[in-house]
């Protein structure tokens, strides 16, 4: 009896995946499972192998050894039918025919999915409405703004009934409000429609808001893959900052502290080894005007920086 | 069928978007057609048919290469490779569409000839067999050109050269016997040259060149198979190393 419910099963299961380009090992023994309905972000420096990993998972490029299973079946056994279940935006705005309208782009790509014209019209218009693009549906794709092109690309990716969405830098070029809307939309797709979303992004706030898990790829290897909170707990160090009015005089208690000065405010950055209470007491003793004392904890950006610093050291 | 219709609609919208370019291309074709007909070119009864053959070949070479080259550069090619329909099927439908469109264009030019310079249209039912065989060969040629463009988008720069080489070396405009020996020999295996030779024999001399038609059918099938083999090889190589989107 299978006690595992459908949602617990991995939609993607990658084992010992290796890929080389002309003797250069780009992916080294990758092991990764992606659950149904989860949002996972692959992060890493440029050239870490993120695009190769994603393209290999999509079947766009072949791999040398290991296995990639989609729905418990090797992806190579699907042929083109694999793409009925995948929605892909590789480079956002570059997925469109610029000389035809937004709606005609939807008709074309929907046609390639084998959808009826009426189905495309109904679903396409509803997607455009959701992404606040409906009034621009008759504009040529080339005349749309970067953000609008990105949204149109996402509408196209959602035209079929994908089980997995691959998004490469989905919020690139989007304004703040559009980014928030998109994040909400992605979360909705994951939670309400059980769509797994695999994305890459360099925008830390997006990664922080949208991801359930993070896979950190370095030099072709997944160095760390965990829930975002665990990732932050493990790698982000808490940081304390005291802001005081004016410049610090050269009191010996403060000489060794890391500080920055801007707009008549000195910010004292306190590391984990220093005693913030003592510094505060000293500042009061020397009659400095304390403007602010802030504590930042578990920031994703901080975690990513610390993790990459760790590699370099 | 939906996929074919989707591809046809997209190609039609492409023509609409770049209509000025297609109109100037038709004007250029008219100048070449009438220039060769009235000037130094071929004055035989079959001339208009051999010109149609060349124009169809030229159309498939340029459109096959240019659209794939553009798609590589804009990134839409990768999207097409990620659809539940094979790219080969899309290319096939695209070739059929562009052949149809080129036929429409050249028939329009020929009709201008009928109306203005009293061009006579000689025809024989056997021409349909020649035309169909050539259609098979042109599909193969389309696959070869598209595959080569998948490998390097720079192929798009050479299509008009290839096109005009075909015009002057296939035995239509310049008679086969006036061509260099090596080209005459190559023309024994070149489907456009074989189709022109067969058409001249049928229309100009009233013969039924069975051996030539059989050779044309055979060569056309070889071209089709060669196109499919080259496409498969380049597609597989693209999967191994990734499609190079650089121009």
Q: What would you say this structure looks like, in words?
A:
The complex is a heterodimer of chains A (313) and B (247). In chain A, helix 7 (228-235) crosses helix 9 (300-312). Chain A folds into 2 domains: 6-234, Rossmann fold (3-Layer(aba) Sandwich), CATH 3.40.50.300; 239-296, no CATH class. Chain A is an alpha/beta fold. Chain A has helices at residues 50-58, 102-112, 117-130, 146-157, 176-193, 204-210, 228-235, 276-285, 300-312, and strands at residues 10-21, 24-35, 39-43, 65-70, 73-74, 86-89, 164-168, 196-200, 213-218, 221-227, 239-245, 258-262, 265-270, 290-296. The longest helix of chain A is centred in the middle third of the chain and has 18 residues, at 176-193. Chain B is mainly alpha-helical and 247 residues long. Chain B has one domain. Chain B is 76% helix and 0% strand. Chain B is built from 10 helices and no strands. In chain B, helix 5 crosses helix 6 and helix 9 runs antiparallel to helix 10 (210-241). Chain B is globular, with a radius of gyration of 18 Å. Chain A binds chain B through residues 21-22, 52, 55, 58, 60-62, 80-84, 86, 88, 90-91, 94-100, 104, 107-116, 156, and chain B through 2-3, 5-7, 9-10, 13-14, 17-18, 74-76, 78-86, 90, 239-242.
